[in-house]
Amino acid sequence: MRRSQNGFYLSTALLVAANLLIPVAVYIFAKGFFPYKPLLPGLAQYEELPQDGSQPTPPFDRLVFMVVDALRSDFVYTDGTGFQYTRSLIKDGVAMPFTAHATSPTVTMPRLKAITTGSIPSFLDVILNLDEADTSSQLSAQDSWLAQMKAKKTGKLVLYGDDTWLKLFPDTFDRADGTSSFFVSDFTEVDNNVTRHIMPELRQDDWNTMVLHYLGLDHIGHKSGPRSVNMVPKQREMDGIVRSIYGAIVSQPHLQSTLLVLCGDHGMNDAGNHGASSAGETSPALVFMSPKLKSIAKPATVPAPFNEEFQYYSKVDQSDLAPTLGALLGFPVPKNNLGAFIRDFLPLWSNRHDQVHLLLSNAKQIFDIIATASGVSLMTDYASSACEVLPTVAEELACELQIISRSVNSKSSDDLEERLFMWLQRAQELMSSMASNYDMSKLIQGGATATLALTLAMASLIFVSDCRWTLLPFAAITILYGIMMFASSYVEEEHHFWYWSASAWLLYVTISRYDRANRRRHTPAITAVMVLVVMRLIRGWNQTGQKFAGEPDIVKLSMTSNPQLLWCLSITTYLTTAVKLGDGLEGLPRGFSVALVTVLIASALAFKVAFCNEDSPELVVGFVETVLGYLGEASLVSRAQAVFAILALSSVYPAYSLLTQPYGKSRLRGKFMKIKSRHIDMKTLHHLYTVLALTQSRVTNLPLFLLFQVLQSFLERLAPGLETAEISTTSLVLQLASFFAKGGTNAISSIDLSNAYNGISGYNVVAVGILTFVSNFAGPIWWASATNVLLLQRRLPAATNSAGATGGTAGTTSGSGEGRGRGRGVYHQHIALWTLFVAASLGFVMAACTALRTHLFIWTVFSPKYLYSMAWSLGQHLSVNVGLGGLLYWLGTR
């Protein structure tokens, strides 16, 4: 016995060490994988003048820069959309249309960095984009066209719209009114707050730059997708803004030399999201508008025929905006720019010397970055015939630029413009293909730390597992999952692995453990069919992944097209949860418990109906619309706060019961009745979390929790006959499968922010972060809680098992640390297995990112996967499975 105890303590020490090493590994690897690239400090200055001693005269002196968040190219250019006036300007030749390529990650902050500085942002900006309180990503010390316009001192800078601009450019704008980009339920107020400032500003002449950033169209996409009934009306609204601004430019004398630019920071996919690299996400519209452009605009087909790749008219990079605006408005190209001047605007300068000077200035500015990165120099005297034989592309570019510069000075070439455009293209290709500034030592250290955590987790299992063969399925799933991480297509379509794993595993435990659990109500075959049907419904609920995103699924085919069926299933989910809660609160006075559960479920359902009315009003029909009329005028914030407050109140009784174990009239004394009583309290807390999960989920996903409850009931019947490793395997496959079933993917675009502000009237990084995590991981958290119920279920004696078992081994105690009769051994093995999987998966993902760091999809597939691995490791594993789960299981078994 003493030896067994010593082994258990050693195993615990190894397990604690393994879990402490996981965040260390995550941090070390992230620091080496997501470094900030070195930047050239200061503002660019005009250095070399043309022979006539003056800079090329800019055609414009003011800029109205209008960003419509998520403005995909087809929203503007194709027929049937709301931008009719903008298309008429293109047809008249006073607007020049482009499709601006947005590189991944296609989220607002890094895209604005690319647009304003012309540089390539760090992928770490994806995380910073979610933290509105962050200041580490500021561009106040970095050159940009905003800084250059301010340095001209010809007028003030004003901003109205997304406050991300204020974070990026503090103390830059003289007048501003920012709005948060994360209140994604709001389609109107965030835009009305921008529009109300426009006409007063257009009447003033004290500014030279006006930035407008509209958010409503992006919010509609997140909520209902690009085909939402709200989309075309919002496009018409934005088109009306263009009409008002352009009308002022034409009619008001002080705006005659104003350039209006309409663009999207990114696009959206068929599901209405963004962040990844699909054609829709990387293809925002870009339109330059001014009467002065009529002389150079090329004929364009209006409206453009639909293109499934969303490529319309000329294609440019978003980074090309910075040098182009520099030439059009008369300031030097920002120092860290990697963009090339858009050649369509070159005819605005009739003097060939001006044209060559603009392109040569752009080339020399980009070469300064190449020189910093590679160490080459223009001071080296290259021979004219030796460029092709130089050892590196950087040296070839230095040689070619030197030759071009000589040609300019000697006036000996007639094709300088074309040669400069070709040089700029090669320079862009070089900089985009160069490997990131990875810190290889940290990548190796991070991987080694994850491997050490894996080794310690494996060692800890030696002391607590007495049934090694039950570990084989868990090990097989872990190894197969790790191998998948080295293939981009498998990472994108990972959900299939977990759907099939979950289905196969549940089929196995149904057949192999059915008799052991002594269930005689149905044959194993019938039960297996029922389980597989439920799993098929779960896996078909939301079409996820990358390849088939936006394709038909149960939500699209049955729920949104039949809202009354959706609400019947949703209300059934709430009522089922209410019944289970009523059973769990039986220790309270009957009248009080019924009233408490009724108020909780009614408040939660009222909030969901009111939220859906704001979010997706097309789903509020029939009897639900009638109910809406009785809900009053309370705000969504106060409704959500009421739900959270009643949830907290309802949690007091089961939590207190677990802490003190009082005995009411219905709670018998005795060891096993004590275990059963705690099991009831644990289930009550689990059902209370179900209400929270429903509150933090989209209405179309509510019936999923009804399916989860069906599976849980089935598993509770099997629990007495399952080994701990088998319950852990069940927990693993169902946590991962439920994440994807609710619409999650390994792409940033699937992050759901729709419920991030429930109950919050202002931005709070901690509260929003928690609500965002619960919203996106509601399914995995639910199954983590259900796992605690199943683990405690195994400790109930055969005669009193809540599932009705009359035999089996649930009440026995093995001689090893497994200890079915001792809760610490059961939970210890469960966490050891989860730690093993998390450490192994982290190690595999780190190895894949390191080995494939030069892969074409490193920033679009593997880097987002690493970010999700961080969330699973730090959020789901350490915070939920180990932290919260450990606390609850300890309360249930102490």
UniProtKB/TrEMBL annotation:
Gene Ontology CC terms: endoplasmic reticulum membrane
SUPFAM superfamilies linked: Alkaline phosphatase-like
InterPro entries: Alkaline_phosphatase_core_sf, Phosphodiest/P_Trfase, PIG-G_N, PIGG/GPI7, PIGG/GPI7_C
BP-aspect Gene Ontology terms: GPI anchor biosynthetic process
Entry superkingdom: Eukaryota
Record's compositionally biased regions (Gly residues): 805-818
Region (Disordered), start-end ranges: 801-821
Membrane association type: Multi-pass membrane protein
A Pfam family hit: Phosphodiest
Transmembrane parts of this sequence: 7-30, 443-464, 471-491, 497-514, 526-544, 594-611, 642-664, 685-708, 763-785, 831-858, 870-891
Keywords, sorted A to Z: Endoplasmic reticulum, Glycoprotein, GPI-anchor biosynthesis, Membrane, Transferase, Transmembrane, Transmembrane helix
Pathway(s) per entry: Glycolipid biosynthesis; glycosylphosphatidylinositol-anchor biosynthesis
Molecular function terms from GO: CP2 mannose-ethanolamine phosphotransferase activity
Database matches in CDD domains: GPI_EPT_2 (cd16024)
Subcellular location: Endoplasmic reticulum membrane
Sequence ranges assigned to domain GPI ethanolamine phosphate transferase 2 C-terminal in this UniProt record: 435-893
PANTHER family: GPI ETHANOLAMINE PHOSPHATE TRANSFERASE 2, PHOSPHATIDYLINOSITOL GLYCAN-RELATED
Family, as annotated: Belongs to the PIGG/PIGN/PIGO family. PIGG subfamily.
Function: Ethanolamine phosphate transferase involved in glycosylphosphatidylinositol-anchor biosynthesis. Transfers ethanolamine phosphate to the GPI second mannose.
Protein name: GPI ethanolamine phosphate transferase 2
Source organism: Apiospora kogelbergensis
